[in-house]
Write a structure and sequence with these properties.
The complex is a heterotrimer of chains A (351), B (318) and C (385). With 318 residues, chain B is an all-alpha fold. In chain B, 73% of the residues lie in helices and 3% in strands. Classes of the chains: A mainly alpha (351), B mainly alpha (318), C alpha/beta (385).
Amino acid sequence: MTDLPQQLINGLWQGAALALFAMGYTLVFGVLDIINLAQGATFMWGAFFAFLCVTKLNWPLWYSIPVAMVGAGFLAVLLDRLAFKPLRSLTSGGLVLWAGFILLLLGMVGHWDYSVKIGITLAGASIMLVGFVLDYRSIRPLRIREVPHLAPMISSIGATFILVSLAINEFGAQVSRFPANLFPVKPYQITADAVISPIQALVLGLSLTLMLVLSLLINKTQMGRAIRAIAWSEKTSRLLGINVDYVIAQTFFISGALAGAAGVLLGLAFNRLEPTMGNEVELAGLTVIIVGGMGSIGGAAMAAFLVGMIRVLSVAYIDSSFRDAFVFALLILVLLVRPSGIFGRSKAVRA
Amino acid sequence: MPEFVTNNISTINFVLINIALGLSIYITLATGLLSLSNAGFMAIGAYTVAIILAEAHMPFALGFVLAIVLGVALAIPIGMLVLGLRDIYLAIATLGFGEIVRIIALNGDKVVRLFSENKDITVFNGAEGITLTYTTPKLLLGLPDTTWPILIYVMVVIYLLATLHNSRYGRILASIRQDETAASTLGVNVVRYKLLAFVLGSAIAAGAGALSAPIVRVIDPHNYVFSRGVDILAYAVLGGMTHWVGPILGATVLTSLPETLRFLKDQRDIVNGLIIMLSIIYLPFGLADPRIMVLLRKIFAFQWLSRSHTHKSAKDLE
Amino acid sequence: MKARFFSFLLILTLVIAANCVVDVSSATATSTNTLTGEIPIGAVWSMTGAAAIYGSSQKNASELAIEQINKSGMLGAAKIKLITEDDRSTKEGAITAFDKLIKEYKVVAILGPTLSNSAKAADPIAQAVKVPVLAVSNTAGGIVEMGDFIFRDSLPEMLVQPNTIRETKNKLGFKKVAILYGNDDVFTKGGYDAFKKALNDQDIQVLATETFNKNDSDFSAQLTKIKGLKPDAIIVSALAEEAAGIMSQGRQLGIPESVPFIGGNGFNSPKLAQLAGPAAEGAITGAAWLISNDTPGNKAFVEEYNKKYGTNPDQFAAQAYTGVYILANAIKTANSSDSTAIRDAMAKIKDLDTVLGKFSFDANREPVHSPVVQVIKNGKFELYK
């Protein structure tokens, strides 16, 4: 049991990064009632954005991380416009956006000559931009829709496939890593038996900071109030004059930025970047938001530490093979005993 | 048998299995339940048959029956536990169950060894899985004898679901999907019917898993990862969740697509993703969209009407 | 009701038929005894899915080899046509790929597939119609036992690791070790079985056995446990990505440099040093091939591969490359493109010069060549001395 302090430290910083990821997840759910299963892909792209900044542009890390967060945020907004918004209302701008997107994909993955490739990709991107603006400014959509409740979830699954494939195209299926000398490696000695490396300390510190920033944002700013209003009731918010569409975009931006941050931090800490890195954190994240209560940010944070600890401790003291089973068992237990989660608002969970 | 059947017999086998799996999730979707545990029940079916054939050395038929019985036996308590949950929570709980099945398959030997004297016993054989020996399939009426059971099974399931669709029970399930509260105020025992649908779906999936064992022949946990459950859902989503033809279309297209699209090779996943997204956005009721069916019916009816019309007028002229 | 049912069945059949577009290949497989024209050879690699990283090495290496063979005129007037199929890292994919290669393209031999379990699912199909299969990356048990048309050139862990343990024990003299292995992958599990047996046979005490899953990125829990037990060495059966994570996290947690990491075939990739950086120094691995091997053609192979693909080849590439040459040699010796003749010629291969060393097949069609033990010094693999 002498390694307990170390195991606790392990669980702590991993839980912190997981919390970042989960908070974005739960934010989108609270506002839109959507489980965005493409959050894992956003997480992965955030990590790769930072990777590109550091390796291709030679920017320092402290600069690359915010840039990556912004990039991931925009990616999340784009995701909403392509995957989720058409399910709420079809607009002509939305159709144009999709046409541009397909053109962009053709350009990116097709085997064209270099100049043709650039041409098609740029054409696709510009059409997308036009569509995006049109869609945003549309006052009267073509059709307001009632789709099967699970449609957004399924749409996000499709989006994940696309995002992961694009990453494989760009970076290859293999594992990449950040260059070696970004960070001192020598671990700090905390107690007699426990160490924490500088990167892990950064993960913990940055995660906690971002969580604080988020809670300030939600509770103290105008934007936060608007988000909370829409989470409470979309219709009423519209009546109150809130530009619902804009706030939804902001929500996605925040959730994407958080996921991107988590991606960079974990990619740094484990020194492992690969297009499929979103899968594992996705399932853990899902467990976290259910245990913490869907829509509760504080709950997600606490649950993330809990889940992080369980993962580490179950490997340490029981059996490494059953780690995932424990996490799922916890998930099912919570669903059965207290489905609204430990801190959740008791939205109707039981039919 | 036409050449394209013999050349593509393995694809046909897999299409048939996936049709059965798509139908298994259809029955729960038609009741308004998003249950993603079918990959887990498929694993149960496959492992049962594999263990019966490879280790107990008993005939396949016994394994098949046992698989279905086991599927039903497990589905009842699981169903009673989770069916009270709404929507997304149900989806996640059932997905979790599927994952647990896979983890048990991967690590089951450790538990078995706790209870047995033989400390080297391998029942599940972990990551390596159970391998069934290959026998060249004999041709019966043109199709290999491994394909016939699956074809018959699919036809039986289709017949069952089609009958259900048009019967009183089918309408009750549809009413639960449309509005559960209303249905229960009308006296429908919602819990019982949901359980019925869930158990039926799980049994079909277990049967499909059992039948897949002799074809895939290597039963390991990797076959039943989380993405398999998502694939099954995609069959139903693409094909349409309101009519039993939907999963048939969806499974056929999505299974044979990778084969026909081999020229796209690495971009297969992007195409898959696009198909899922585009169909859910622009065809939310799937290919078997009831509106399309109505339209088709109108077209055929129109043709039939116009033909009889011309006959009439031609006769008049005489 | 009945009519509707049957009409839907008809639609079903039509849909299946429409989807199974059969593109007729222009391969002409001559079953005569002269070598002319195009000889179709199939290759099944996992180019998408979980094993895509290995499949791409194998694809690259095999294409390089075919190019060289055709250019060199080794087979006289005949040329080899390589038809590559992707099995998507699934058994279904492997089965359908084999079917397609055999029935449509009428290949005379097949290389691959990448994964052992896919091989167990698909190889019997080839065996049944007497098409030889040469496995270049299957290291599990039960492969060549599938039939006399199934060969492999990839040394199974059972044949490599006893040597590794013996050599390292001699030089380092360790008495107690800890083992960490991936239990959800046939490759790494097979490595574990081999290590366990070798350690047992050589009376080395195993203090702890920990496991992890493929694609895991966090090993801190297992490593913390291991660190506490103070082993003399840590045996790791993992693929390069996980191995890199294990080593760097191990050092970060404070496992001293005096405790080396010893690994199996999975370590043998240029990615290991790339990903683990300084933590990879001193890592020892028992493998089938060393990049700096002084074997015939190896230096040229590494150079050519680098020139064409921009990176160093790994062991998967080396074994695939060798596989193509083995097949080509068999075709040449048999002087025929008949599958059975090729198989018979392959079975008799003895001391063939390959980049893996002098290569032979034993009576059970298993590979016979000397394994190596190597260590990472200054970020590069060197022979362990």
